[in-house]
Specification:
five-stranded antiparallel beta sheet, about 750 residues, alpha+beta
């Protein structure tokens, strides 16, 4: 069974265009931009990208080549593709290879040429990138490195186009295979089921239900041993345990099951384990083959054998005399035939015990050899298969005509089929019951007695294809889980490039699905955040688990995340990258900041409160002692505030306090610290200023002057006054913040005693 021969009528360059997705319209904007760039960079009127195969040249892109037929044979390119470095011709009229060519002597009158070859990933020459001028140039002034870079850009683009074509072809093939596998499972001649690791049925096809004699509803969720024959339950469970524990990849065993009608059904049970990516057992795959008829026949055969043995014993005595006469002749023949018999037996035994089907076919497509595995895979006994047409026996009807044509070519020894010998080919086969299934074929040929015989090993790969489908399903489930997780999940390689991310990036940052793949972390996080997390990244790339908290600009504003980084350690012990799980803690962060602000600020004026003041004062005094700098404290109290508050009301008093706070804030420097101590008492802390005493005095007098200006507060004209006490800590003793504040308070009371609206040190 062979694939059809490949046609060789299509030129290689057209075949390449087809692989690149350019067949029928050579119009690629990327290549056009490169040729334009090449023309501008080298200041030439013409630049081209050309494909070359044999005596054919095909322009993929050209700039400025406006002579009558720019696809004409360009004589320079064959010389260019013969070397790895750039080829430069300073003046074509002085070069014996080109001086009499029509494109040199006539339009466009080429004088200067520089080009570099383009190659496939396998090193096969595709064509050239070249620049052309109508004026000669000095070859020593040509930037060969720049030409090489541009050629590499063309080469990389062609590679990416070829990779995209392969990807499209693989996707079409995968979709076709998935459809075939789904139909195969539904119409399989064997029962197929999936069980959990704790022994409960999860899924099965209809044939599985038919073999066990129970409905799908009865089987789903039941334990694997519920319907087993009592004598076979423990052996069956032991087989499942061995597979799940990894003692063996798969086991086969004959077991009996009790059907719904009470009868007993013999089955051949095959069990194998499906593991997750970490190698842990995930599911148990069970395949049932109905062998009830076979077991019945075996019982009948045993009975018949017993009867035959009795008859043989009766006839043995009669045959002994005849056997004695024949022994002499048999001994003579046996000695001459023994070597041939032993060799034949070894060969036939090997073929019969082979797990792959072995088939030999003569030149007329008639089967001449058919081993035991072929019987099991295709459903035809050896006696039935010998002499049949291979095409009618195992080739699907839709493929028979192509198979016969390809087989005829192969048996004729045509050159374009010789490469198939020894290769592994995936094709479709058909069983006796009409079921199509995927198989892998390895083809060979030999001559016996002067005639050609084709042979093939065929392997049923249905289970392998099912496993591949299961793996894809697992990957899809994992993608669904990660996309619905309320967190950012990503995998980042050692070069800090994203290789996977879930849908949270789309929801939170408006990034297209898979939009970060290949993007480096600093481009998304930002250089500042990346620098902040550099120690964490270094730790995880050293093989240690790490956590971090950081902020990123989200779709609706800044967002805070708490991230866990887990290293990905490969088998050789190196770290290939790390997994990142980041939870959104923005609301928690905002709540913490709000609580922190409320705990340290006065609700009426928005100024820091006593708690914040004492913390700041402690820090300022410690700094002053360390650096021999002075700290000044202004202690302020409104004069006559209580009568005003009692007379005009508390709301009016609150407005006065807010006005007082705003006046202080407007009068101090940005580094100065303003706080509300209690009631109508306010404090200003001044540091890192010399001489601080002079500045404190100027600030206090300026405040008194501003307060004395008449203001209207809630419709009432008010002229405020305050008493201010100033204390200075010179950093030379161990005075506490409380003691410094008491000195400022005492100075304030001296100011009040002196007549109010005054400042005292």
């Amino acid at each position: 069974m062979l694939p059809p021969s490949q046609s060789h009528d299509e030129p290689e360059c057209l075949a390449l265009l087809r692989r690149l997705g350019l067949h029928g319209h050579i119009d690629d904007p990327v290549l056009d931009r490169i040729t334009r760039t090449a023309a501008r960079l080298f200041a030439v009127p013409m630049a081209m990208v050309r494909l070359i195969h044999g005596d054919r040249q095909c322009p993929l892109s050209r700039y400025g080549a406006d002579w009558q037929d720019a696809s004409n044979w360009l004589p320079f390119c064959p010389h260019t593709i013969g070397q790895d470095e750039a080829m430069v011709v300073g003046d074509a009229t002085d070069d014996i290879r080109f001086h009499d060519h029509a494109l040199v002597t006539g339009p466009p009158h080429i004088r200067f040429y520089a080009g570099r070859s383009l190659r496939s990933r396998q090193g096969i020459v595709w064509g050239t990138l070249c620049v052309i001028d109508q004026a000669p140039r000095d070859p020593g002034n040509v930037d060969r490195a720049a030409l090489g870079d541009l050629a590499d850009m063309v080469q990389d683009h062609l590679w990416s186009l070829e990779d995209a074509g392969r990807t499209r072809a693989m996707q079409v093939s995968l979709e076709r295979s998935e459809t075939l596998l789904a139909r195969t499972a539904a119409h399989a001649a064997v029962g197929i089921a999936v069980a959990s690791t704790d022994g409960h049925w999860l899924e099965m096809n209809q044939r599985f239900c038919d073999i066990l004699g129970h409905s799908r509803e009865e089987l789903l969720g039941s334990h694997v041993a519920d319907f087993a024959h009592p004598d076979d339950r423990e052996p069956g469970l032991a087989m499942a345990r061995r597979v799940l524990q990894g003692d063996t990849e798969a086991l086969d065993m004959e077991l009996r099951f009790l059907r719904a009608d009470g009868s007993c059904s013999w089955t051949q049970v095959g069990a194998s384990v499906l593991r997750d990516r970490e190698g842990r057992p995930e599911n148990l795959i069970v395949v049932l083959t109905d062998i009830h008829v076979r077991k019945t026949v075996e019982h009948d055969l045993a009975t018949l054998q017993h009867a035959l043995e009795q008859r043989v014993a009766e006839r043995t005595a009669e045959l002994q005399l005849t056997v004695a006469r024949l022994q002499g002749e048999i001994a003579a023949r046996a000695s001459t035939q023994q070597a041939l018999i032993e060799e034949k037996e070894r060969f036939e035994t090997t073929l019969q015990l082979a797990s792959d089907a072995f088939v030999e076919v003569d030149a007329d497509d008639r089967i001449v050899s058919w081993n035991r595995s072929a019987e099991l895979i295709f459903g035809w006994s050896r006696d039935e298969a010998i002499g049949r047409s291979l095409a009618d026996t195992i080739v699907p009807a839709s493929m028979r005509e192509r198979h016969l044509k390809a087989f005829e070519s192969f048996m004729a020894g045509l050159p374009d089929t010789g490469h198939l010998v020894g290769r592994h080919l995936e094709l479709s086969g058909v069983r006796r019951d009409g079921e199509e299934f995927p198989l892998e074929l390895t083809l060979g040929a030999t001559r016996i007695g002067g005639r050609m015989v084709a042979n093939a090993f065929l392997q049923d790969i249905s289970r392998r294809k099912a496993d591949e489908l299961a793996l894809r399903s697992t990957a899809e489930r994992l993608r669904t889980i990660t996309d619905n997780a309320p967190a950012m999940i990503a995998y980042i390689d050692r070069d800090l490039r994203y290789r996977f991310h879930n849908r949270a990036y789309t929801d939170w940052f408006d990034i297209a699905p898979d939009g970060l793949l290949g993007i480096r972390v600093p481009e998304f996080w930002g250089e500042a955040t990346c620098a902040q997390l550099q120690p964490v990244i270094e730790r995880v790339l050293a093989g240690h688990r790490a956590t971090a908290e950081y902020s990123l600009p989200g779709r609706t504003g800044p967002m805070w995340f708490y991230a866990t980084l887990v290293p990905h350690v490969v088998e050789d012990g190196t770290v290939a990258g790390f997994y990142l799980l980041a939870q959104d803690v923005t609301e928690r962060k905002r709540l913490y900041e709000r609580i922190e602000h409320e705990a340290s600020h006065d609700a009426l004026t928005g100024l820091p409160n006593r708690r914040a003041l004492m913390q700041r004062l402690q820090e300022a005094m410690t700094h002053a002692r360390r650096h021999a700098r002075a700290v000044a404290v202004l202690f302020m109290d409104l004069d006559n505030f209580k009568p005003m508050n009692d007379t005009l009301g508390h709301e009016f008093g609150d407005a006065v306090l807010r006005h007082f706070a705003e006046t202080i804030r407007a009068s101090v420097r940005d580094p100065d610290f303003v706080a509300r101590l209690a009631g109508d008492e306010f404090v200003v802390v001044i540091e890192d200023l010399a001489p601080v005493r002079d500045y404190a005095g100027r600030l206090g007098r300026a405040l008194l002057e501003r307060l004395a200006t008449e203001r209207e507060i809630q419709g009432v004209a008010v002229r405020l006054a305050a008493s201010i006490g100033v204390a200075v800590h010179d950093g030379e003793d161990e005075e506490t913040p409380q003691e410094l504040l008491r000195r400022a308070d005492a100075a304030m009371y001296r100011a009040k005693a002196a007549g109010r609206q005054r400042l005292a040190f």
